[in-house]
Amino acid sequence: MLPIPLPEGFRIISGGQTGADRAALDWAIRRGVPHGGWCPRGRLAEEGPIPPRYRLRETPQPLYEERTAWNVRDADATVIFSIAPELRGGSLLTRELARQMGKPWLHLPASLGVEEAARRLAEFVRACGARTLNAAGPRASNEPQIGRFVIAVLDRCFGADTLPVETQAQSSG
Predict the structure, then answer these.
(1) Domain chopping of the chain, boundaries
(2) Which pLDDT does position 167 carry in this prediction?
(3) Is the CB of residue 88 less than 8 Å from the CB of residue 68?
(4) What's the pLDDT tens digit per position in 67-102?
């Protein structure tokens, strides 16, 4: 049954690129969900430096691959969003790194629709007990609609007005 409560201590990490990464971070910021992750040295993204409001740490090298690997490594699980049915580029690399590291991963193409994608994400988070979820996917220039899909799925999965468990306790106290 959707939405599901955010697991205690839940946080979203990503690399801060435009598109899927940034949408997941924006979702977390708006919901008061802790966020973080690794970005390339110099806070590189396709449109220029990643804004400081995203609490990302820089990797030693200005390489997207290093950032991707470190986010997969530091997450309990990775979700890869896409509009296209097949993964390519950095999204494909993300999946391959998760496989190599033995980390759980889930690909959610938009062809599933928001409801089914949210249901699968909820099952995935429960099954692997993810507290740190790496959100990945294509950049905005490759799939301009990806941001809306990511936010719609996260809203449906966790609730559009859900606060983390510890925030709920503080605000009701």
Answers:
(1) 11-161
(2) 40
(3) no
(4) 999 999 999 999 999 999 999 999 999 999 999 999
The three state secondary structure string of 26-94 is HHHHHHCCCEECEECCCCCCCCCCCCCCCCCEECCCCCHHHHHHHHHHHCCEEEEEECCCCCCHHHHHH
- pTM, entire model: 0.93
- What's the CATH fold of domain 11-161? Rossmann fold (3.40.50)
Cβ-Cβ contacts under 8 Å for 19 (sequence gap 6 or more) = 137, 138, 139, 140, 141, 142, 143, 146, 147
The Cα 142–Cα 125 span in angstroms is: 27
- 8 Å CB contact between 42 and 60: no
